[in-house]
Amino acid sequence: MGWRGPPPPFYPSAEHTLEDRNAVSAVLEGKLYITNFRGAESLDELRKIGCTHIAAVGSEFLDNKENAAANQLGIKFWNHDITDDEEEQASMAATLKSAAGFIAKALKRRKSCVLVHCAAGISRSATVVLGYLVLHQKHSLRDAFARLYASRSIIWPNDGFMRALIELEAKLRGKPTISMNEYESWGEYDGPEEELAAELSSLSAAEPSMSRHRGLNKQERKAQAKLATEEARNAHAARTRELWKALPRKTRRFRWRAIHVPNLGIANTLNRVGGFVTKRNRSPRVVAEDSLTHS
Fold first, then answer.
1. 195, 68: one domain
2. N or C: which end of the chain has fewer CB within 10 A?
3. What is the per-residue pLDDT across 106-126, written as a single tens digit (0 to 9) for each?
4. Residues with Cβ < 8 Å from 190, sequence gap 6 or more?
5. Of 281, 287, 289, nearest in space to 269 by CA
6. Same-domain pairing of 122 and 170
7. Shared domain check, 54 and 198
8. In this structure, is the dihedral angle defined by the CA atoms of residues 230, 232, 237 and 239, taken in order, positive or negative?
């Protein structure tokens, strides 16, 4: 389950919009950009950045004829058939050098500009850009992640792809700068502790509290409040487990085509959002409407 406290250096975006996903984000200004499929098919955006090359990552982007805007501008393509699935780790690992090489070769030419995209501009395209920064810009994986995250805060490679990047850095430099345990922990961040306190407070607001505290001194009231908080935590955890067990197994194993929603446990996610719930390791996620066909 998730955890609360001071925010980690990076964590999945909970509040990004379709507009955020459509944005064409600069990684290396004037040279390298990342976006989703809509941004890659926008004639205005392609002209604006002076795009000359596109790296399209995904089984749904193998037919270059579908990108009329890019074809109109005579843009050169690199494509790879890969889905956004943790089980595609080996395929992504085998692809990174080819993808990074395409970007590096293109950027050696004067006035060239490369746009990398997948469906949402979150996982697959981010993995390719990180691979390029590690292989050809000599960034550590942590520094590469920081750079990309600063320009496009919605990025979050799935766990399988991150393992491929960690293994790549370990082979190159002997030791990775991000561990898998660390990355998984970042992915489970549920927000500041204060938000949980506010949530628990609202849950107990309907209960009469004055009678429970009448006649108690400060220490006793504090102890009782702590006990009530623990009871609420336990009840929330039990409800979460109950709902999780009730989910069809197929739904639990739904591929990474989802957006993490911090500050909401699975129970609250189901109650408030009413969407599908999926599980990327232990992290609750809600399938976004726009990600059902494009991730």
1. no
2. N
3. 999 999 999 999 999 999 999
4. 2, 3, 4, 196, 262, 263, 264, 265
5. 287
6. yes
7. no
8. positive
- C-alpha to C-alpha distance for 115 and 263, rounded to whole angstroms: 33
Comparing CA positions, the residue from 32, 43, 101, 30 lying closest to residue 70 is: 43
| Number of compact structural domains in the chain | 2
Convert the pLDDT of each residue in 214-273 to its tens digit. 455 556 666 666 666 566 666 656 665 565 555 554 444 333 333 333 333 444 343 333
Same domain, 142 and 199: no
Q: Which residue has the tokens 């929330």?
A: 236
Q: Using a cut of 0.85, tell me whether the model's pTM lies above it.
A: no
Mean pLDDT of the chain: 79
User: Are the CB atoms for 136 and 104 separated by under 8 Å?
Assistant: yes
Q: Which of 57, 113, 118, 130 is catalytic?
A: 118
In a domain, 201, yes or no: yes
Q: Does residue 159 sit in the same domain as residue 48?
A: yes
- Say which range, 77-91, 148-162, 186-200, 274-288, has the weakest mean pLDDT: 274-288
Residue whose structure tokens are 């050098």: 97
Asked about 113 being catalytic, the answer comes back as no
